[in-house]
Amino acid sequence: MEIISFVGSSAAVKKSSSGSFTIPRLTKNVAKNRVLNSSKGAVSSSSYTGFAPSLASQPAIAIALDKAYSKTERQFTFVGITKIFSILVLFAVFVLVPYTIFNLLSFVENHTAPLVLDASSNYEFEALSGAMSRFAMVGLSDRVDENGNVLAEDGSVLTAQSVGIGEAVTFQTYTVRAGDSISTISRKFGLSNISTLIAVNDISNVRTLRSGQKLRIPSVDGLVYKVQAGDTLNSLSVKYHVSVEEILDANDLSSETLSKGSELFIPGAKMDASELKKAMGELFSYPITASWRLTSKFGPRKDPFTGVASNHTGIDMACPTGTPIKAAMSGKVVYVGWSNIFGNYVIINHGNGYQSLYGHMSQTLAKKGQEVDHNTKIGLVGSTGYSTGPHLHFTVYKNGNLVDPLSLLKK
C-alpha cells in the first residue's frame, strides 16, 4: 500500500493494491480544486512525501476521489432507508399486530360467544317492562273494546237495550269540552259504539278531537251512508244486516226509491275493523321506510345468544347502522335513555293506551317531552345493548299489555 500526501493538506489518501482510493470525510470540491491548482503550476514548494505523481496524472486522482466520495454518499443513503424500513417493520410487529388480534378476539367474544343475563339484567328488563305498562296507562280515558263497543264501569259491553235507546232517530249538537274523549261522549248520550260518532261527524282521526269542536249526536247507534249509483234498500239491508223497514223508519222514508248522493242513516250499523282502527289512530306506520329485513317476530323464540326458550316482546327489523328511525304514530316522547337490554332507546306515548318502544339505536334524536308524528326522525339504527347486529327492536303496548306490532302496522 502506498501513502500519498497532498501539499498543504493533512488529509491522507490510501491507495489499495486494486487501484481504488479512500479518503477521510473531505469535501470533494476542496480536493478537486487543490489538484487543479497544482496542474496550473500553482504548486507549493513543499515536497511530496513518498511517491510523487506527475502533474498530468493529478486530474485522474481527483476523478477517482470524486467517485469514491459519491459511492460513500450512496452507502450512507441506503443504510438510512434500511433503518427506517426496519423501524416500521418493528412497529407493525409489536404494535399493529397485537392491536389487531385484540380487536378480533373482542369481536368474536361479543358477537359469537353466548351471553348470559345476570340477575341485575333480568331485573332491569322487568323494570323496563313495568315502566312501559305504567306509561301506557297514563291518561287512559277511553274504555272501548277492539270493535269500538263502549264498555260499562264493570267492563261489560253497553247495548241499545242496556242504555234504553229508542228507535226514533234525532240529532242534537254537542260542544266538546276539556277532558272529553270519543268514548265518554258516546256514553254520555247513550250510544253503545264509538263508530257512530266517528262516522256521523266524518272524523278521520279521533286524536284530532279538540275542546270547542261541534259534534252531531244521533239518538241511536248507526252510520251515515251516501247513496251510490245502483244502491237499493235491499242491497243496503244485506250489506249492513238491518231490515228494510228499520232503514225506512230511521230516515222517515215513504218510498224505497233512492237518489244518488243523498244520505241515509243506517241504524245499528258499525264501521269495519280496519276503518275503525284507522279512525282511532291505531294503524301504526312502519318506523323504518328504507329497505329492511324481519329477523325476529313477536312471541316465543330461542334467545339469539344462549339458545334458551324466551318470549320476544316485539319485532326486529334488520338494516344498516345509521338508517333513520321514525315514530310509528303521532304522540309524545315520554322517555329517552340507555339500558343494558335495549341500548339507546326511546318510548312514545300515543294515547288511547298505546305505547311504543324503539331499541338498540346507535343514536337517539328525539327529546323527552317532544311531540312527534309519523314523519319525525327519533333516532338511528344501531346495535347497542343486548344485540347481535344492527337492527331496530320495536315493541308496542296496549293498555299495559304487549301486542304484536305486525297486527297494528299498515299493510
What does this structure look like?
The protein has 3 domains: 2-77, no CATH class; 119-139 and 282-407, Glucose Permease (Domain IIA); 171-279, LysM domain (Membrane-bound Lytic Murein Transglycosylase D, Chain A). Helices cover 29% and strands 23% of the residues. The protein has helices spanning 28-39, 58-111, 119-137, 182-188, 195-200, 233-240, 244-251, 273-279; strands at residues 2-5, 12-15, 21-22, 171-175, 214-218, 222-226, 263-267, 293-296, 299-302, 309-312, 315-318, 324-326, 331-339, 343-351, 354-364, 371-372, 377-381, 391-398, 401-403. A hairpin with a 3-residue loop joins β13 and β14. The model is unreliable at 1-32, 34-57, 108-121, 136-141 and 160-166 (pLDDT under 50).
Q: How many individual domains?
A: 3
Basic shape: elongated
The helix-and-strand class reads: alpha+beta
How many helices does DSSP assign?
8
Query: Roughly what fraction of the amino acids lie in strands?
Result: 15-25%
- The mean pLDDT is 74
Main sheet attributes: strand count, strand direction, barrel closure: 10 strands, antiparallel
The CATH architecture of the largest domain is Distorted Sandwich
Low-pLDDT segments, ≥5 res = 1-32, 34-57, 108-121, 136-141, 160-166
Query: Number of DSSP strands?
Result: 19
- Helix fraction? 25-40%
Q: What is the CATH level 1 assignment of the largest domain?
A: Mainly Beta
Gyration radius from CA atoms, angstroms: 46 Å
CATH topology of the largest domain: Glucose Permease (Domain IIA)
